[in-house]
């Protein structure tokens, strides 16, 4: 089978019949909002989705690898420098279309039409598993959205309100702005995402108390 992967004619035919399932699209959107990135092809007309997480999140990496099984031909690679696992999809025009939405001059952005893109609870859960966390003593949550600036955060805030009925705050610190799900919205947020949060990531949404040895 590996010989087929390196056969350009076979690969061209394979790509013609390749499509993203609804689940793959939802996970892709959440991943792009989170830690995902793209690698553009030499032709400039196709791209790969790159997924990279810390080695401690290996179960999460395996879960994503399974989701994109028909898009990935190699096992995740270990990077010793940053102690992470990484894999990429094959290069495809469908992936490139999402890159066009979320990147401007090689910088990740929030598109103006994010309300038409971020609609699924699964996407929301993947985004949170990538870049979100809870608090130790209160039922509130945060998502690291520093990279999107004020305007990007405002677009996300409006999207969460309209598509999920979720009211969020913007919190500013030395790094910039990030989304904050206040206590009054905590249970609603958990109900939205908890069915899709994988076991190894459940700690992010559980009410945690200080560890006692």
TrEMBL record:
SUPFAM superfamilies: Homing endonucleases (SSF55608). It holds the Pfam family LAGLIDADG_2. It comes from the Bacteria. Residues 25-189 form the Homing endonuclease LAGLIDADG domain. GO terms for molecular function: endonuclease activity. InterPro entries: Homing_endonucl, LAGLIDADG_dom. This is Homing endonuclease LAGLIDADG domain-containing protein. It comes from Candidatus Daviesbacteria bacterium RIFCSPLOWO2_01_FULL_40_24. The lineage of its organism: Bacteria, Candidatus Daviesiibacteriota.
């Amino acid at each position: 089978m590996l010989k087929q992967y390196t056969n350009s004619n076979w690969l061209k035919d394979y790509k013609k019949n390749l499509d993203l399932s609804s689940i793959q699209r939802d996970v892709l959107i959440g991943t792009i909002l989170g830690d995902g990135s793209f690698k553009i092809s030499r032709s400039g007309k196709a791209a790969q989705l790159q997924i990279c997480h810390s080695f401690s999140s290996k179960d999460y990496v395996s879960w994503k690898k399974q989701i994109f099984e028909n898009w990935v031909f190699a096992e995740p690679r270990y990077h010793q420098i940053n102690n992470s696992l990484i894999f990429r999809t094959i290069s495809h025009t469908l992936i490139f279309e999402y890159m066009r939405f979320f990147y401007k001059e090689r910088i990740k952005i929030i598109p103006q039409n994010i309300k038409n893109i971020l609609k699924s609870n699964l996407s929301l859960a993947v985004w949170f598993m990538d870049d979100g966390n809870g608090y130790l003593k209160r039922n509130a949550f945060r998502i690291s959205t520093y990279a999107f600036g004020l305007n990007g955060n405002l677009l996300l805030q409006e999207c969460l309100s309209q598509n999920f009925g979720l009211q969020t705050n913007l919190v500013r610190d030395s790094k910039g702005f990030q989304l904050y799900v206040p206590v009054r919205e905590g249970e609603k947020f958990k109900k939205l995402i908890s069915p899709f949060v994988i076991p190894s990531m459940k700690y992010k949404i559980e009410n945690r108390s200080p560890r006692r040895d």
